[in-house]
Design a protein that fits this description.
Radius of gyration: 19 Å
Number of helices: 7
CATH class of the largest domain: Alpha Beta
CATH superfamily of the largest domain: Aspartate/ornithine carbamoyltransferase
Largest sheet: 4 strands, parallel
Structural class: alpha/beta
Distance between the termini: 34 Å
Number of strands: 8
Shape: globular
CATH architecture of the largest domain: 3-Layer(aba) Sandwich
Number of domains: 2
Length: 247
């Protein structure tokens, strides 16, 4: 596997190997030489705090040289195209490029225009594979397993790249997913990805994990719910609506 553009790029064995490696590195404080002499470019064309800082810190902990570019303040503000930006930066001969972009498919284009390994850190409302892998790691840490786990994903599924990646990842490891939310925020045909859907919050009652999505107002061009107060009343996750946790 050269690039990580989508969960579809992975097999179950790939996922297991990634999770085992992450577990082995957990708690290691000293820098490791795994990426010594390698250049990692971080290209973020959307706002980010946790994802961008996590990638940068991880690369530095593996002894990589890191160069970060944000759209704001770069030549992108002057109208430079994604292709021109990537072709210019490719002259630095990076070994890996981590890219977040508002347009679906941008990471695939970056992989085409450069010789680097490309990691998708989020493209539009399409995919966010590394977040899904982190979520699998967290679930396995909490429950001790993934196979057979029931995860309820609640909220704005329509605009969520995280949800799409997580649905695929959970299916890959033998877990099952129920999407819960207003009909306007559940994409048509999404059950074809191997999940079930529900429009009543009661569907979370028997879930092992309840995964709550934020309302992505920055991607909403019209009203998808009558009001956020009504949304919270009908689909908010409260202690009374979930069952007590157990391992």
């Amino acid at each position: 596997m050269r690039h990580l553009l989508s969960i579809a790029d992975l097999t179950r064995d790939d996922v297991e190997r990634i999770l085992e490696t992450a577990g082995a590195l957990q708690g290691v404080d000293e820098k490791l030489p795994a990426l010594r002499g390698k250049l990692v470019l971080s290209l973020f064309f959307e706002s980010s705090t946790r994802t961008s800082s996590s990638f940068e810190l991880a690369a530095k902990k593996l002894s990589a040289d890191v160069m970060s570019l944000k759209a704001a303040g770069s030549s992108v503000d002057k109208g430079e195209s994604l292709k021109d930006t990537v072709l210019t930066l490719a002259q630095y001969e990076p070994h890996a490029i981590v890219v977040r972009h508002p347009r679906i498919g941008a990471p695939e284009l970056v992989a085409r225009w450069s010789g680097a390994a490309v990691v998708n850190a989020g493209d539009g409302k399409h995919q966010h594979p590394t977040q899904a892998l982190l979520d699998l790691f967290t679930i396995r840490e909490a429950l001790g397993r993934l196979d057979g786990v029931h995860v309820a994903i609640v909220g704005d599924v329509l605009h969520s790249r995280v949800a799409r990646s997580l649905i695929q990842a959970l299916a890959l490891v033998g877990a099952r997913t129920t999407l819960v939310g207003p009909p306007t925020l559940i994409p048509r045909g999404i059950a074809a990805m191997g999940c079930s859907t529900a429009t009543e919050i009661g569907a979370i009652a028997d879930a092992d994990v309840v995964y709550v999505l934020r309302m992505q107002r920055e991607r909403m061009e019209s009203a998808f719910v009558p009001s956020f107060r009504e949304y919270a009343a009908r689909w908010g996750v409260t202690p009374e609506r979930v069952r007590p946790g157990r391992r």
